[in-house]
Inverse folding.
């Protein structure tokens, strides 16, 4: 099944204790699309400016991402500059230049409207709601969000949570949205908002999957070197939802396997800046690391 | 198989954001003994002062802990006062009064010298080495340590690491001892010092078990409420080594199951102050939570 993803495509400048990168390919929908493309066809809806390098579009196409929905608008591409300290869980934003992203109103091409799966990457929750209205009921809808929207548009975020099947967010966002410092309480509280599943991403500490009646805890893959955590969450979501698209059936067992494929994809993403590492791997590498992960966690 | 444990028995005063307790039963060997006692006989070697309440000794005996090796010396019992903030990973020490513990020279009773398993709880590494010399070669020797000894007696800590089968320490101590900030590198580096296994305790983020050639990552059990993390690591070790004592055979698979029993025991310890929660549970509770844990982590 194909996935329709709506989110940001950006040019990032990033500094970590282990290096830096200037104006490199980034954005939530980019990381998601490239990650999911290893598993299933991806239809991308986003906006870039006239300054967006053609090579990035070629790269996405080469990965099997359909870019018909990638609008090229007058102006500059969304740019973000961030800096990480040794604590990779928090980036300090140096600047955010929304540019063409500021007036982004996702228009879903006709041929995308029947994509089997929908992923609403981190954008304004009102736009996420508008996208849901434009498409025919997908087999599964998942979304991500960020602290900014929880603070400024909490009501809309809750509206989104009511309508999606899977709600993904990170540890701090889960605490913020629920008002619970304990993650078990936070996950259960968000589940009560309406989604069938809540996925709390804990970075290097793994992932918690909350279902009605059960919880699944998956530790992260262990790495000797993390160079840049940017996009880890979106890459996780891409592997997770991408795997479900490939399998076509959405059972609890497939969802757990998807969580592990997401974990594996994220582990590759953080090994290098931007999409560099993800652009150098094959499905064989992914399967090998999936098996490593099984060995790492099997009793 | 019986376990010989050598460590501290203390009276703790603890403050957390969720409550406080004054002069309650504590100490590394206490938490270890009570936890292990659910699985196998425990022989305790430690020292207390004349002020040590008899009821605590009765409690230990009731739990099947042999207290022949619990010396009652002239003076006061070791006392520690600590305070935790919402970050339960670090306690601020208000005071440490070693009292009779300062001159503790463990004397192993004759009938303890052939205990099948030896656990060297956190004490001066030179005393840990002296204990190893006093006993007949156990089937398995495990130890714990703390930052103070890594800073002040690093050479002795390394000497202990060379001689034990299983070396347990927490995340910060692993980084400190190895000089590696990355935990994967830290675990592998400590493994090269000599032990067959290294266990890195990550508190609420679970445990990593390093063997030569493989790693096992076990997430923590999820709790809605943590009241006092004191003793969690020693309780973990008690469940872990206690289970191995019960089984009698020490295979990789049994060691992993032991890690999970340790995780389960620690999850009970932190639910209340001191040994309160551990004194209220039965083996049936432990088995039930073990099954819950399996469900939590099974793909």
């Amino acid at each position: 099944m194909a996935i329709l993803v709506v989110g940001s495509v950006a040019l990032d400048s990033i500094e970590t204790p282990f290096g830096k990168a200037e104006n490199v390919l980034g954005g939530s929908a980019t990381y998601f699309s490239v990650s999911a493309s290893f598993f299933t066809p991806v239809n991308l809806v986003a906006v870039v400016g006239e300054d967006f390098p053609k090579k990035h579009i070629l790269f996405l196409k080469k990965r099997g991402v359909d870019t018909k929905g990638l609008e090229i608008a007058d102006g500059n591409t969304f740019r973000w500059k961030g800096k990480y300290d040794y604590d990779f869980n928090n980036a300090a934003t140096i600047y955010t230049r929304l540019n063409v992203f500021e007036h982004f109103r996702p228009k879903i091409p006709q041929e995308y409207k029947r994509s089997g799966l929908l992923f609403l990457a981190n954008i304004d929750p009102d736009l996420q709601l508008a996208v849901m209205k434009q498409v025919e009921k997908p087999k599964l809808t998942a979304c991500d969000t960020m602290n900014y929207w929880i603070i400024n548009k909490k009501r809309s975020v809750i509206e989104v949570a009511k309508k999606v099947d899977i709600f993904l967010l990170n540890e701090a966002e889960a605490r913020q949205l629920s008002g619970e410092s304990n993650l078990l309480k936070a996950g259960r509280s968000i589940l009560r908002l309406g989604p069938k599943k809540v996925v709390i991403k804990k970075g290097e500490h793994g992932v918690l999957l909350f279902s009605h009646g059960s919880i699944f805890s998956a530790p992260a893959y262990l790495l000797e070197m993390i160079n840049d955590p940017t996009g880890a969450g979106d890459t996780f979501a891409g592997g997770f939802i991408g795997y479900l698209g490939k399998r076509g059936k959405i059972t609890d067992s497939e969802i757990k396997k998807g969580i592990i494929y997401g974990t594996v994809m994220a582990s590759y993403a953080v090994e290098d800046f931007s999409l560099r590492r993800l652009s150098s791997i094959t499905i064989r590498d992914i399967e090998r690391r999936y098996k490593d992960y099984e060995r790492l966690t099997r009793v």
